[in-house]
Amino acid sequence: MKKILLVLLGACTFVGAQAQWQTLFNGKNLKGWTRVGGTAEYRVVDGAIEGISRTGTPNTFLRTDKEYGDFILEMLFRVDEGLNSGIQFRSHLTDGRVRGYQYEIDPSARAWSGGVYDEARLGWLYPLTTNPAAQRAFRHGDWNKVRVEAVGNRIRTWINGVPAADVLDAQDASGFIALQVHAVGKPELAGKKVSWKEIRILTSGLEYELSPETGIAQHNCIPNTISEREKAEGWKLLWDGKTTDGWRSHKGPQFPGKGWHIKDGILTVEKADGAESGNGGDIITTGKYRNFILTVDFKITPGANSGIKYFVNPDVNSAKGGSAIGCEYQVLDDAKHPDAKLGVNGNRKLGSLYDLIPAPADKPFRKGFFNKAAIVVRGNHVEHWLNDVKIIEYERNNAMWDALVDYSKYKDWVNFGNFESGHILLQDHGDEVYYKNIKIRELE
Length: 444
What we know:
Shape: elongated
Largest sheet: 9 strands, mixed
Oligomer: single chain
CATH superfamily of the largest domain: Exo-inulinase, domain 1
CATH topology of the largest domain: Jelly Rolls
C-alpha cells in the first residue's frame, strides 16, 4: 500500500510540475513590458495596469519583452464606455506597427468583446455576429475575465467563462503579448481608461488545462483548406487555391487563356477596360448546383465591379456577347463605381441581388479587407450574407418573383431565377477583384 501511495503522489507531483502558471505582471511596476506604437500613457494603479487614451496618437501597445508560442493566457480587464481596446498575442512589431492576433475589448452596443481581430493585417477573423451568448457575457463597468488558448493553428477565446471564438489560422506560431489603448479621434474620448490585472500565462503542461470542446462555430482562416470539422459537415473546396480545376469559361469547355491569374492562393480577375466579360470573360463551375451554402472571400480594388452568380445556364440563356446570365450577388465599390447610383433604391450596390433586391445601406462591409459572401439556397428560398450577417432573403418561383423580374433588366430572359439548378459564376467586369476560400456545402 505504501508503495502504491508513493507512486500516486509522484504522479500528482509530475502533473503539477507540467502545469505551472507564470505571472506576467508583478502588480507593482511595468518591469518586463515596453510601450510601442504610440504615446498613450500606461501606469500601475491599485495593482492593475491602467492605460489612458490620448488624442493625436495612433494605437498604443504595452508589449511583453518575451515572446510566447503555445499557451493559455488569463487576465481580468475593465474598460470605460466609449473606449475600444484589445489584447494582442502572437504579435510582432514591423515597420513601426504592431501586427497580429487581438482579443477584442468592445464595450459598444456591437458587443464583440472576446472576438478575434487580426491587427493591421486581415481584419476580423471571428466577429461575434453569430454568438449572442458571448455578446451578452460582457459586464459593463466591472472586471471581465479573459481566457485565450493558442495551441498550434487553433485559437479559442472566452469572456467571463462563455466561449467566444474558435479560429483556425496559420499566420503566426509565436509572438509577444500586448495591451492596447486604441487611438481616439474625438477630444471627449481623451482620458478614457482601460485596466488589466491578474495577468498569467501557462506554457507547459497545456494538455492538462485545455478546455473541452464548446460547440460554437469554428472559423477556418487557413486559405483554401477544409478543416476536419468542415469535412464532417459536408463542405468541399470549390476552388483548390492552386489550379483551374473545376472551372471553365462560360463560353466554352476551357478556362480562359487570359484575364485571370492565380498567385499566392488568390484567384484574380484582371484589370482591363471595365467592360462586361470584355477581357478573359466570366468563369463558371463545371458542375451545376441545386441546394447549397456557398461561401466566397472577395476583395475589391478601388472603383471595381464584379459579381458572384448562381442558377447560371448558358446553354439556355447565351451571353449575347456580354456576361453570362444568372442571379447575381453584386460585388462592387459602392463609393466609386457609377453602377451603384443606377437601378432602383440601391439594388445594384454591394451584396444586392443585382437589379432586383437592394442590400441594406448599413451592411457590414470592410473596406480594404477580404469580405466573406455567402449564398444560401434551399429550394425556392434564397439568402445573401455578408461577413456572417444576413443582408437579404427572397422566395422565387412565384407570382411576386415573376413580377419583380418583369420590372428588371432580366424580363426577356428565359425562366430567369427559376431554374432548379445551375452553374456558379465569377464575373469578369474588366476590373481587378480578388477571390479565395471558395467553398460549398450541398444540402438535401
